[in-house]
Specification:
With about 160 residues, this protein is an alpha/beta fold. It contains 4 helices and 6 strands; from the N terminus they run αβαβββββαα.
């Protein structure tokens, strides 16, 4: 699958491990004109208010936040996955090649919104080597982010409530 989005700016932020750093990155993207933010990250710790506030600020500014649902095979109705379980976030599960939910993908009707391919995704690894077998919800979330970006580009009338 190849996705081409013309006139698209990408803000790449890597290796940020703390909620306040992630919140700063979200605010940076919003203040620099981002329309869609992808969070291919997450944890099961209680939510940090600083990060929740940054996501709410992005939403208030009209920015759509997309996040990976997690790869522990957990029911997020029982154990929330942060940041994908936040109210104004599109949470992305990942599928197998036959378009069924992968057993490792977190699931749940309350917080998970959509599935996307996340098995054998061709990408680069941390050492800039090609990896044809990457997988997980962190690979699926950017696909949904790209679709949301294209929808915003053609001024689609769907809202996050309709998408979520």
């Amino acid at each position: 699958m190849i996705i081409i989005i013309q006139k698209c700016k990408i803000f790449a932020v890597q290796k940020i491990n703390y909620d306040d750093n992630i919140a700063r990155a979200i605010r940076y993207a919003v203040s620099n004109g981002a329309k869609v933010i992808n969070l291919s990250l997450g944890c099961y710790a209680p939510d940090e208010q600083v990060l929740v506030d940054a996501i709410e600020e992005a939403y208030a500014a009209g920015v759509t936040v997309v996040a990976s649902a997690g790869n522990s095979g957990k029911n997020t109705n029982i154990e929330r996955h942060y940041q994908s379980s936040e109210e104004h976030v599109i949470s992305v599960m990942f599928t197998n090649p036959d378009n069924t939910r992968n057993y490792q993908s977190n699931y749940g009707k309350i917080y998970n919104d959509i599935c996307a391919p996340g098995h054998n995704i061709f990408t680069t690894d941390i050492n800039n080597n090609y990896n044809p077998e990457a997988g997980g919800s962190s690979m699926a979330a950017p696909i949904v982010s790209a679709v949301v970006t294209m929808m915003k580009g053609v001024k689609c009338q769907s809202s996050i409530q309709k998408l979520g």
